[in-house]
């Protein structure tokens, strides 16, 4: 089978753009292939993604307008160096950007602010609160208070003797004449209505301007130590240093009270670990590895801007008190990036040909982000949306499973190529409005040029059919409600990589 000449094709099992558009925030795929290369090895690569994710308002949205492409192009680099220190010990540094998001809405839809039509709450709910506030305030007034308010509205000074005479005579008329009573009640109720409407207008004017957008970036530096008791086995593990930062802006009618919310996630770091086991039989180009990566905790100071906070007063005295308490509150937010498992396998199947497969699991079901003040507001308004304990900015309902299988072949002494097929389960549907796709299928092509036996240049391209998804806000997460639907979307990923043996 000429397996000693398969080195070129074997490298193709880890082409650039392997993950690129995975479920939830998953991005790089966190490959360990560079560390498992023989001898001393260095590689650097970059992947680009050009997605198209568009849809239409749906579900609880009051309109059915189209939503243009909201997925932004992005790129992410990776690099690795692996040193075979002795026959039995190796060391490696791996850099990648495992998780991320980049999206921005535009046009005329529920994710873009429209000062002419946006309201602090959905129209039906706002009207119910408005009517309840007016009726509750009016019904709580005694006869004396209603008469006093009516006379004050007419400019009568009740602190003077003359004003008191007018007040007593009007009160007698109110209690004995249906006509007088109806006249006064109508005026008082209109006065209350005017104040309530003015208050609603005031809070509606606090709504944000602009459009919904999100950008989240992470960086990983893994320090890996390997022990090879013989040529077949490799036991490895080590610490992982990770940073995370991001910005989120919520705009438009879809977010109601959060229309205008901004969160700036300052860059912070955390430490986790990885561990794995690899087995190989070089004579038949067989290589298999299983790698576990731990969760990584981040205690983040998030700078939150919430201009609509005074709107909590619409909920009554308790809401007004909550608004004051939230404005004065401060605290850190815990963000835990998920644990994952990668299973990689490859084997020679015929002369100069290798088959490969990768299976990845990511524990997105247990992942959520709830910025500190965002959470306090969610607890205050949670009963209105059947979430008495509040809700998260982002959460997912399912774990992610993905698979990539293919065949690589050495074509000449300097050229090799591969083909692959990929699948991703997604992380639940409905899914967050900040990343409204549900898994994918993809096909990929790769080519590698090796000018000399010790280095190569590789390129790959993948086309993704993105899964249809229903998009829901944080207040809807965990239920069946949604505000938009995204269908028939796709993405194109491509990447470059260089590798060098020394």
Automatic annotation (TrEMBL):
Membrane topology: Multi-pass membrane protein
GO cellular component terms listed in the entry, alphabetical order: cell outer membrane
Membrane is among the record's keywords: yes
Localisation: Cell outer membrane
Similarity remark: Belongs to the OmpP1/FadL family.
Signal peptide range in chain numbering: 1-22
InterPro entries named among the record's database cross-references: OMPP1/FadL/TodX
Molecular function (Gene Ontology), one example: long-chain fatty acid transporting porin activity
Main location: membrane
Protein name stated in the entry: Long-chain fatty acid transporter
Keyword field: Cell outer membrane, Membrane, Signal, Transmembrane, Transmembrane beta strand
């Amino acid at each position: 089978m000429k397996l000693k000449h398969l080195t070129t094709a074997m490298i193709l099992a880890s082409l650039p753009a392997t993950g690129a558009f995975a479920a939830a925030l998953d991005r790089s795929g966190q490959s360990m292939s560079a560390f498992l290369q023989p001898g001393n090895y260095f590689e650097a690569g970059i992947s680009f993604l050009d997605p198209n994710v568009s849809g239409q308002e749906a579900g609880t949205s009051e309109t059915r307008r189209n939503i243009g492409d909201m997925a932004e192009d992005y790129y992410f680099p990776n690099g690795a160096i692996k040193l075979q220190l002795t026959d039995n010990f190796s060391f490696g540094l791996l850099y990648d950007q495992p998780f991320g998001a980049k999206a921005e809405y535009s046009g005329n839809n529920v994710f873009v602010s429209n000062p002419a039509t946006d309201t602090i709450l959905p129209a039906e709910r706002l009207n119910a609160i408005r009517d309840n506030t007016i009726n509750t305030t009016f019904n709580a007034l005694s006869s004396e208070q209603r008469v006093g308010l009516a006379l004050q509205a007419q400019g009568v000074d009740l602190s003077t003797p003359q004003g008191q005479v007018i007040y007593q005579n009007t009160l007698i008329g109110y209690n004995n004449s249906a006509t007088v009573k109806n006249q006064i009640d109508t005026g008082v109720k209109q006065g209350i209505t005017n104040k309530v409407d003015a208050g609603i207008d005031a809070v509606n004017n606090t709504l944000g301007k602009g459009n919904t957008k999100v950008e989240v970036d992470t960086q990983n530096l893994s320090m890996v130590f390997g022990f090879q008791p013989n040529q077949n086995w490799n036991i490895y593990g080590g610490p992982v240093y990770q940073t995370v930062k991001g910005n989120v802006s919520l705009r438009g009618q879809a977010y109601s009270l959060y229309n205008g919310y901004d969160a700036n996630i300052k860059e912070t770091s955390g430490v986790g670990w990885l561990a794995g086991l690899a087995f190989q039989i070089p004579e038949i180009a067989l290589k298999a590895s299983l790698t576990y990566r731990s969760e990584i905790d981040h205690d983040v100071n998030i700078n939150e801007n919430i201009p609509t906070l005074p709107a909590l007063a619409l909920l009554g005295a308790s809401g007004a008190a909550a608004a004051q308490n939230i404005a004065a509150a401060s605290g850190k937010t815990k963000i835990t990036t998920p644990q994952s498992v990668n299973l990689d396998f490859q084997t020679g199947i015929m002369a100069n040909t290798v088959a490969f497969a990768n299976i990845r699991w990511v524990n997105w079901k247990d992942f959520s982000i709830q910025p500190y003040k965002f959470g306090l507001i969610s607890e205050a308004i949670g009963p209105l949306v059947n979430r008495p304990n509040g809700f998260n900015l982002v959460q997912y309902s399912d774990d992610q499973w993905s698979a990539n299988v293919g065949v690589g072949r050495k074509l000449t002494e300097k050229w090799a190529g591969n083909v692959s097929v990929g699948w991703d389960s997604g992380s639940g549907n409905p899914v967050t409005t900040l990343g409204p796709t549900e898994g994918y299928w993809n096909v990929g092509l790769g080519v590698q040029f090796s000018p000399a036996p010790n280095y190569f240049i590789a390129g790959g391209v993948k086309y993704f059919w993105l899964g249809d998804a229903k998009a829901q806000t944080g207040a809807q997460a965990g239920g069946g409600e949604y505000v938009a639907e995204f269908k028939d979307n796709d993405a194109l990923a491509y990447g470059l990589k260089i590798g060098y043996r020394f």
